[in-house]
Queue: 3 jobs
Job 1
Amino acid sequence: MLPELTATRYVTPLKEGGSLPGIVEADDDGTYVLKFRGAGQGLKVLVAEVLVAGIARLIDVPVPDLAVVRLDPRIAKYEADEEVQDLLTASVGTNLGVDFLPGSLGYDGSRPPGADLAERVIWLDALTANVDRTWSNPNLLVWHGRTWAIDHGAALYFHHSWPSRAPSPERFAAQPFDASRHVLRDVAGDVARRHDELAARLTPATLEAVVAEVPEEWIEPTPDLADASTVRAAYVQMLRARLDGPLTWVPEGAAA
Ligand SMILES: Nc1ncnc2c1ncn2[C@@H]1O[C@H](COP(=O)(O)OP(=O)(O)OP(=O)(O)O)[C@@H](O)[C@H]1O
Ligand SMILES: [Mg+2]
């Protein structure tokens, strides 16, 4: 389970970040990048962050630790900036904390990872249909000499259609992935060659454990998915379908 913490101080908004993430301190004395439940994109973005980070860990892609961070109404009250205050007020309750990596640098290609890690990151993004790792938005940090993957809220986009349409594992299984603009494309070798080994780590049991990490209150039932356990099962089914399906999403010979 993800650790459950309480925010003790709102420090500052992050300068980058479309969803206005902020930095907070929590009652474990840690500092976290907070992804707010009240930000425009809603709870599904937080769910995608937890799921993709969980899968990343299974294939040894470094990701910052995650935590559930509770926001108290009092923290919003003491915030002077009106836009931030609105966001904090809308986010009272549980939010996603991403362990802040102090002194990390945004990825600029000057210290690329080895081909092995680059291939695993591209495979992760292809599996989870994460288009958000290009040169215009690398979403990689360099910290302690390693490359860390962040910002997975845009992945698993299929769940945004769930309120109106039943999940379609077949459609997701067949959805292609375009790795041509991936920020690590030129560093990676043949990603397809890695598929069997990486897919073998995502057993039904390990995927279920990842899906179980999503806090219950972030899961939104729909007419087709009546309760949280049905929604969780749907995520596993979607991912299994992609892993077992026609594999047209696996990037072939990514090296330029
Ligand atoms: N764990 C972290 N440690 C240090 N810095 C971080 C961390 N997470 C994010 N950042 C910094 O904050 C920026 C914004 O974070 P992130 O990409 O997760 O937010 P976002 O709102 O989803 O962004 P966008 O939509 O602009 O891609 C990152 O580009 C990075 O510079
Ligand atoms: Mg980002």
Job 2
Amino acid sequence: MVAHLPHRTLSLTEEEAAHPPAMELTGRRRMSPKDRALSETLFGEFHQDPRYREYVLGCLNCGECTTGCPAARFYDFSPREMLQIAATGDATTLWDALQEKIWSCCQCYTCNMRCRFGNDIAGIISVMRELSVRHGLEATRKTLAPFGRSLTLLMTVGTQVSADMIQPDFFRDWGPFATGSDQVWGVSSEVMRKAIPLDVLQTTRSSWEVSVQTSLELFRIYEETGVLDMLRGLDPDLTEMLVDIIEERREEFQEARETYRAALETMKGPVATFEG
Ligand code: SF4
Ligand code: SF4
């Protein structure tokens, strides 16, 4: 007897499991049908982002942006290429850029200053990053995995590097200019640290010391703007840890406020008597 089962459309994952797909070779890697579908979605979202029209204005291909880019000096990366991908690339080239290259940029905005077309190159790279984080791309998870400690500091105290951390031992990846002597690109690192004018920013301890209220306000921004939700999709464990930290601070803040109110009430007694 043959059972007549209702027809069911297989999901892409099941389909792939049943019939391993012929992989499609993009410029840098092989792409499965599932990734191909996702790349089309990302491409659509990227071009519909309201910032796209504002940031991408055209390109002369002059390369001025790349000549001043610190990331281009050390990595296989160029802001000119990023802008070209944004302006004329297809879903595949965007997908390739989202895998790795977008994370080479240090968001210094030098490229924007140099671009005679007025492109916001650093801005469009940020839009690409948001896209990759929002969709929890596997490559993005791997790229950001070692930065849990930095993210924790950024999201709880608002900064993670202080002036006194600018030392050769802390930045070995800067290469021989930084690690071979106490010089960073020909300038004493001590001089560089002093270039930051506020004394309070000179030490790690003072940089990481923020009031509970500041910490809570900062975290509220991450909650209200959807950053926390994006992070949850990327790293749920880290997100839960951050939420726990902030919940503790909220309780701490609430207790401090109640103590303050009680103290005010105590003070009101003699004042009221005096006024009376
Ligand atoms: S913002 Fe990024 S792409 Fe632009 S110059 Fe700085 S590192 Fe390079
Ligand atoms: S500086 Fe502007 S116009 Fe020139 S290559 Fe870069 S993005 Fe294009």
Job 3
Amino acid sequence: MPVSIHTADWIIPITASPIKNGAVAINEGRILHVGTYKDVCERLTGMVFHHGKGAIMPALVNAHIHLELSSLKNYLDDSEGFIDWLRNLVERRSIPSPSEVKDAMILAIDRLKQTGTILIGDITNTGLSIPILTSKPIKAMVFLEVVGLKMEKAKVHWNQLLKLLTQWSKRINLPITLAAHSPYSVSKEILRQIRDWSESHDQIISIHLAESEEEVIFLMTGGGPLKDLLVDIEAFDPDFNPPGLSPVAYLAKLGFLGDKTLCVHLVHINHEDIYILKKKGVKVCICPLSNHRLKVGLPPVDKLLKADIPIALGTDSLASNEDINLFREMAYLKAEFSHIPGHEILKMGSLYGATALGMESTLGSIEPGKEAHLIFIPLEATFLSTIELEEAVIESGLKQKVKWIEK
Ligand SMILES: [Zn+2]
């Protein structure tokens, strides 16, 4: 296969400064070289594709989504905060028909591709997304998620998922691992078993953590609106002893946190929690627009960055987000935290997402040897500074059509 050389006004490698009048050389789906057009042409010959006014960057990584909840978009749009939303989710989850669920997942994957996403961390309770993912041009790490505070229920679900994991892992070439829903909905025995499984299989695991204030109250006191909800939906375990700790401190005590644990949300965390996350090398993913929709607040992005913790981005599902376009999450972060540089936000949407899913050696930046999944973002102006460029890329990615470059 001949070498392809793709040129544009700008190349944004993510791991290096943007390159003016840059080029990327690709061969057999791999990046061979990146540099100025002049530099690339001096080293290599090949078919040249001039993309013109705009920027080439790595395709995006959505580190947390639930494809199988996509069809609930039409059933949960009047949420009045986290607890109401969760109640609606439990009550209405089985309303969509299997074909509605499947069609919505296919549309969601198409939307992800249309908006420049190559890799997702997909949470599933049923495994329904797995056969669809294998037939679509998108990469995924699938997390089979365990739910159950009541030990008996949790055990049944745990065994079902382990069976599913074994079945699918033999049949397909898609990374599949485990997740716990949250510290308030999974018994501590099962949390420990998931941790042990992760250690013995050297696999990344995930959990929703510190998403709402109600979660903090429940773990600190054993009461509050979350307990009422768990009782109402018959998911509360009367033997549950509140640990009297923050969600992060509780999981640390159980030994659940480590460099293979991907914690999602982290809206309600304090200084000690951030210290624990950093010390344990925990992987972090935030879903700011889902948090906004469910009125739980904003994650402390500044404090996490100050602690030098890489932050990945996720959209969460269409049940709690209007769209699954990662450029929207980046634009929202830029609007809420205007002092955070654009390059840091672009990194959250690409390299840090790949890192969160353990795929940073092949995806997330434009570097020789990595897989060539690149996107071209058209830009209207020729920019003077890289700061203006990175902000314009986020804005344009939100509004304009993304063009794929993969060969
Ligand atoms: Zn989620």
